[in-house]
Amino acid sequence: MNTQELIKIEDDYFINTFTRQPIVLDHGEGVKVWDIDGKEYIDMFAGIAVNCLGHNHPALVKAIQDQAEKLIHISSIYYNEPALIYAKRLVDKTSFDRIFYANSGAEANEGAIKLAVKYTGKSEVISTVESFHGRTIMTLAATGHEHYHEPFKCILPKGFINVPYNDIDAIKEAITENTAAIIVEPIQGEGGVNVPDIDYLKQIEEICHEKDIVFIVDEVQTGFGRCGTLFAHELFDVKPDIMTMAKGIGGGVPMGAILATEKVAGAFVPGDHGTTFGGGPLVAAAANAVLDAFEEENLLDNVNEVGDYFIEELKKLDKDIIADVRGKGLMVGIELTKPGAEYVDKLREAGFLINCTADKVLRFVPPLTITKADIDKFVKALDEIL
Ligand code: PMP
Fold it and tell me: Which transformation does this protein catalyse, written as a reaction (predicted)?
């Protein structure tokens, strides 16, 4: 079938949700992907910050193949070695003490909020305007986009309060006797690559400690090296009570996790939470391979070096249409003075995959293996197109 015929299947059969780009992707290698017509693209989007090792990294492919031949799935009522080994490896790299696996970012955030509610016995959660925490009913309530809430207002749980991002006074005003948790992205992704003031998270941490409120960082997008440290909250020198992650952690397989301190984690008892697929052997084997690559391939050095170079090169673009260039590591955005959708199309036609978020922000979250030479090609194309 050709592209038009395949896309028509979506039109005829799918529940209408995504507005997709009109290409059918077929295979990838490193930072490149090809569509079914053989057209090549540099992937500046990495499946929304997922394919941290690039596409089809040989060690990741091999780990998945080897594990698939041994055991793909067992019930989570039994132990499996890859998930146990990974738990120890990951937790030991953080300030947290315990882990629970999930299949997606939304599911990790659901579990995190449940844990905070169980720990405190309270029922209010503060989140930020323009934040994104997921599409399930509870994470939708936490997500700070009014227009996503609108059709579901009648069923959204009460107790979620959205306050402006990077505004500590707004948080102080929103806190009540009944506040269970504050959930924030260390850098907002969907909201437009918004980097907060350097002391924002520290101040949240202090308030949370003072009032015994659970401090949750949502590292689903910022995590796994994207911002130049394994987790972005490390940049702000804080120790949250809970961290959620997904996306990059599995390098492309559906893997997520909730990490918590001993104190907070202890609130859950058997029966409080569960999952059929979370931390299954296949995805855990993949996650171990991703972690191996981080340890063996100096990925964080690459993120910092190429990320800084990328931002510098973008800042050199002298265009009236550019209102701001911002980001950290390889999570980078350009805010335009007008809606950006047409530039996404033009760049795709020129062989580069990006997306536009918050209407006017062109967002770039490429594989963490991207090189300066790839960046040069992209910036040249962007320069011409803008
Ligand atoms: N949190 C953040 C910060 C995200 O960026 C996203 C997805 N864009 C999610 C949660 C939800 O993740 P998922 O789509 O895997 O449920």
Answer: N(2)-acetyl-L-ornithine + 2-oxoglutarate = N-acetyl-L-glutamate 5-semialdehyde + L-glutamate
